[in-house]
Design goal:
The complex is a heterodimer.
Chain A lengths: L3 E6 L2 E6 H18 L5 H23 L3 E2 L1 H11 L2 H7 L24 E2 L8 H9 L3 H13 L3 H12 L2 E2 L2 H8 L12 H12 L1 H5 L3 H21 L1 H32 L3 H4 L13 H28 L6 H27 L3 E10 L5 E6 L7 H6 L26 E7 L6 E10 L2 H9 L1 E2 L2 E4 L2 E4 L4 E2 L9 E8 L4 E5 L24 E7 L2 E4 H27 L4 H18 L8
Parallel strand pairs in A: 2-3, 4-5, 7-12, 7-15, 8-14
Antiparallel strand pairs in A: 1-2, 6-9, 9-14, 10-13, 11-12, 15-16, 16-17
Chain B lengths: L1 H23 L3 E2 H10 L9 H10 L3 E6 L7 E6 L1 H26 L4
Antiparallel strand pairs in B: 1-3, 2-3
């Protein structure tokens, strides 16, 4: 059984078997190619086709068949002769001028095509190499280098990819390489032959192909290339990435194990004195450390195992084990969550503890900060501070490092209602219950010194040994009667609340390391600012007197009167004198 | 190779003359021309004839009529034009001269 095709050749309808059809088609294409440069190609080919039709019809009648088979076609070809046989007899064609326009477009020069056979991405470089007669590797090198010029290379490549047609047919490939399109050189390969003719006939259309259609081709090709890339070159890159992940992952895991061991073993005692580890209760430290370890360790382990699988194509771990790992991780996460909740519950209650100390009533107090660090006995030994050397001062830096729990004091300065100067120390803390919160507050150790007029505060409070950080705070409330002067040293500025201390520097003498304040009925005031305000007020008063005088001088001039009145009103407003609107 | 080339050249010239001579005998169909040429052992394949006929026609030596055929498409029947006849008589003369030249060349003028 064979598929039959109905063809119209030389105005005759003929049934022909598919294989015979292909044979005939190839032969006719060969003939067309041969006569392509001939002046009367159409007529000659028509004559030949008519004759073929006649021969086939005759044969069908002779053999009493209905369908042409390959044998018939071969007979016809034998009768008509192959193109190679034409050469011997027909030399005159060479003398004739080539007129046919559609087949004349056979440039001897090269054409720019993308070489799909030697491509790496889309054959752009190879095509350019053919066109310029360069070795393709130099073109590729140049292309790679231009990529580093701000990525212009990628853009140019994409553009060329869109603009340059790809060389698919034999003729295009020949044109690309600058070989003469030698028709006799065509292979007899059936498919290739058919393809070539089809391409050539559609050549005119192809060059007029709209840009967006090419863009569509480009996108399709790009996706195809991406697919090839991911399965080919990309896989290599992924594997390399995976190997890098495996190496660093393993290093990280080892680091984690060592770190935890160090935490648990070597640093055990002192690490928990540092913030934020100081939050953790003593009893729970092991549990938290272990669960935190699991929570960090297992995802990294999973990543490493996955990368091993990508890199080496082997499953490094079976399903049960990975499921077990997941369970362990969930357990670890739950433990961490539970502990976090438990710790945060210890901040639930709030307790305050106040301690009031009365001061000698003095007209002036000096507020200063003791920069020297407070050391406990143990610290002194640990830091090798020799007690024999007198007058030795260790100066604390003021910065809050990452591992220092927030333990700065705050100073408030208020008006004393009963005319007595006093210091109220307020210790605050959180805790799970009020009782524990109060206990935590009691465990704050803080000291200041008052000697005559000077009040020297420690910038930080300490927690007694064994106390954990529960957001402890120390507030110093200094209460002084109205009229009391306060000299605040510059070191203390940062601890004094809400008074714009930095703005109160005496503008005339900038070198002072203090500012002077005075307690008024309205609260604490900067003396320098008060002075300035007084000067300003005096100026305005003087202006007011001047203006009143001016107003009386030119009664007739209404415009002048108006402007003076306006100014008077402004000045009065600034002075705080009540202005009657009716005036 | 040289022999082949010469043979081809000879055949080519004579083929054209023969085709004109065959058509001069009366209106004739292309495949009949081929049959005659075959029997004269001058032409092997049919494909060669069509370009030749087309060229002769374009030069005004031939004309053709479409004649209905019983066994297929209409056929082109070729005849000589007046110009063709003129050329043919010239060619006849040339052939006589050539035959004489060849005869003389082969046998010598005196024989």
């Amino acid at each position: 059984m064979e598929k039959t095709i109905i063809i119209n050749i030389g105005n005759t309808i003929i049934h022909i078997e598919e294989s015979a059809y292909e044979l005939l088609k190839a032969y006719l294409n060969e003939v067309k190619q041969y006569f392509a440069n001939h002046a009367d190609d159409l007529e000659i080919v028509t004559d030949i086709e008519n004759r073929i039709a006649e021969l086939l019809t005759e044969q069908l009648e002779e053999q009493k068949k209905k369908v042409v088979d390959a044998g018939n076609v071969n007979f016809v070809i034998g009768q008509m002769g192959r193109v190679q046989d034409f050469d011997n007899a027909e030399a005159t064609t060479e003398e004739e001028p080539v007129v046919n326009a559609s087949f004349q477009a056979q440039p001897t020069g090269k054409k720019l095509y993308r070489d799909m056979d030697e491509r790496v991405i889309a054959g752009v470089c190879a095509g350019i190499a053919h066109y310029l007669d360069f070795d393709v590797k130099w073109i590729r090198l140049a292309a790679v280098l231009t990529v580093f010029l701000g990525g212009t290379g990628i853009l140019v490549y994409a553009l060329l990819w869109i603009i340059m047609p790809k060389a698919t047919s034999r003729i295009e490939k020949m044109e690309m390489k600058g070989e003469p399109a030698n028709l006799q050189g065509f292979q007899k390969n059936l498919d290739e032959e058919l393809q070539a003719v089809r391409e050539r006939l559609s050549e005119a259309n192809k060059h007029a192909q709209p840009v967006f259609a090419r863009l569509g081709n480009f996108i399709g090709e790009f996706v195809e290339w991406l697919g090839r890339f991911i399965s080919g070159t990309g896989q290599v890159i992924f594997k390399l990435i995976a190997i890098v992940i495996v190496i660093f992952g393993v290093l990280f895991l080892l680091g984690l194990i060592v770190g935890v061991a160090a935490f648990q073993g070597f640093w055990d005692a002192s690490i928990y004195e540092y913030f934020p580890f100081s939050i953790v209760n003593e009893g729970n430290r092991g549990v938290i450390l272990f669960s935190a370890f699991i929570v960090c360790f297992i995802p990294v382990l999973a990543l490493v195992l996955f990368s091993i699988r990508v890199a080496f194509g082997k499953q490094a771990i079976n399903k049960t084990l990975s499921f077990a790992l997941l369970i362990i991780w969930l357990a670890g996460a739950a433990a961490v969550g539970y502990q976090a909740a438990k710790i945060s519950s210890e901040f639930k209650q709030h307790a305050e503890l106040t301690q009031t100390t009365e001061l000698k009533t003095l007209p002036t107090y000096i507020i200063d900060i003791d920069k020297s660090k407070y050391f406990s006995r143990e610290d002194s030994i640990a830091y090798h501070i020799d007690a024999n050397q007198k007058n030795q001062v260790v100066v604390d830096d003021f910065e809050d490092g990452p591992f220092v729990s927030p333990n700065n004091i705050r100073i408030n300065i208020n008006k004393s209602e009963n005319g007595v100067s006093r210091i109220v120390q307020k210790y605050e803390s959180q805790g799970k219950t009020f009782r524990s919160a109060l206990q935590n507050a009691q465990n704050i150790s803080y000291s200041y010194s008052s000697k005559d007029a000077s009040l020297v505060f420690n910038p930080r409070f300490q927690l007694r040994k064994g106390t954990i950080w529960r957001n402890q705070e120390v507030w110093i409330n200094l209460e002084v009667p109205v009229g009391t002067k306060l000299v605040i040293k510059r070191d203390a500025y940062r601890y004094v609340n809400n008074y714009g201390t930095w703005d109160c520097d005496d503008k005339e003498s900038d070198s002072n390391d203090y500012s002077t304040w005075i307690m008024t009925d309205d609260g604490l005031k900067c003396v320098a600012q008060l002075k300035e305000e007084a000067v300003q007020k005096k100026k305005l008063n003087q202006e007011l007197i001047d203006l009143e005088a001016m107003k009386k001088s030119k009664v007739a001039d209404t415009i002048y009167q108006d402007s003076v009145s306006n100014r008077i009103r402004e000045v009065k407003q600034e002075l705080g004198i009540n202005v009657d609107e009716n005036q | 190779m040289i022999a082949e080339n010469t043979q081809t050249q000879m055949r080519k010239g004579i083929l054209e003359y023969c085709v004109l001579s065959i058509i001069a005998r009366g209106e004739i169909y292309a495949s009949d021309i081929i049959a005659e040429l075959r029997s004269a052992k001058l032409l092997v394949v049919e494909g060669t004839l069509y370009p030749l006929l087309t060229r002769l026609k374009n030069n005004g030596l031939l004309s053709y009529n479409w004649v209905e055929s019983t066994s297929g498409p209409p056929r082109k029947y070729y005849t000589l034009t007046e110009a063709g006849k003129g050329i043919l008589s010239q060619l006849d003369q040339t052939w006589q001269e050539l035959a004489y030249a060849v005869g003389i060349s082969q046998k010598g003028a005196n024989s």
